[in-house]
Design goal:
This protein is α/β, with parallel strands linked by helices. Helices cover about 30% and strands about 15% of the residues.
Length: about 280
């Protein structure tokens, strides 16, 4: 199947559903979109219920989690080897143990780890954007990368999501961040985690893929493997701008990517290395 313009034949492991309160569409619609666009696989990875706060605009409620797992599991049965059951879980130091216990209750193929809160402040939430006015942007970046490193060290995640999400609204540090970035890249590599190339940044005020080329270059130098995610919040966004993401990876020297293969016994998915499709694969 020939992919539409802007789409590269890569799996999309970062998609949401209407359950999270800030997206639209049912899991089935995301799967249908992925198949129509010629993607080789799709993971549904909606937001795990937040444990340090409750906000229906940010994540599903705990009472909805079992239904979510059952719905995606049925899609796995009808599309074997194509659909994966994922979840996006927030790294919050104070609730790490609780999060581990909750994750262990369900047969997730993978867990996408993200940082959306810096010491209680939801920095990427447009409702909280004023918080940037009362804080040092440099300190925000340093603390964010520190938390991402802790997330990598926690052992709770399969993939780290949008590893420079802190830039979402266009705020940039005045000081160089090579030191914190090098430390983060080394931590991720040591932990054996995957990092996604996330195209949602192109649809945000920053107008740039997550992570930035400089961050991605540091990750490649450290030997970190990459996956791909659209962070789709509507079925039409599945695989969006994957050709640009693929081209960025190739430009920075990546020759392959990490693909997830669902297990049959309820354990985490296996990781396979596959070659990046060439630029003329569209």
């Amino acid at each position: 199947m020939r992919a539409p313009s802007g789409i590269a034949p890569l799996p999309d492991y970062h998609t949401h559903t209407q359950l999270c309160g800030h997206a639209q569409g049912a899991p089935r619609e995301y799967v249908e979109s992925a198949r129509a666009k010629g993607l080789p696989a799709i993971g549904i990875a909606d937001h795990l219920p937040l444990l340090h706060t409750r906000d229906p605009q940010l994540s599903m409620d705990r009472r909805q989690l079992e239904g979510y797992v059952e719905e995606v599991s049925r899609l796995k049965e009808t599309h074997p080897g194509y659909v994966l059951l994922g979840i996006e879980a927030d790294y919050v130091p104070q609730t790490l143990a609780q999060m581990r216990d909750l994750l262990a209750e369900y047969p997730f193929d993978y867990v996408l780890g993200s940082v959306h809160f810096i010491d209680g402040w939801g920095f990427d939430d447009p409702r909280n954007i004023g918080g940037f006015d009362s804080r040092s942007v440099d300190e925000i970046y340093r603390r964010y990368f520190e938390l991402m490193g802790e997330a990598a060290d926690s052992g709770a995640f399969t993939i780290l999501g949008h590893v420079d999400l802190v830039k979402k609204f266009g705020h940039r540090p005045a000081e160089p961040m090579e030191g914190p970035l090098s430390l983060l890249a080394a931590t991720i590599a040591r932990a054996g985690l995957l990092v996604e190339i996330n195209t949602a940044g192109l649809r945000r005020p920053v107008g740039e893929i997550y992570p930035a080329p400089s961050v991605l270059a540091a990750l490649r130098k450290a030997g970190v493997r990459v996956t791909f995610g659209s962070d789709a919040h509507a079925p039409a966004e599945v695989g969006m701008d994957f050709a640009a993401a693929r081209d960025l990876a190739l430009d920075l020297g990546f020759v392959d990517y990490a693909a997830l293969v669902p297990s049959r016994n309820g354990s985490r998915a296996q990781v396979e290395t596959r070659p990046l499709p060439a630029g003329d694969a569209e």
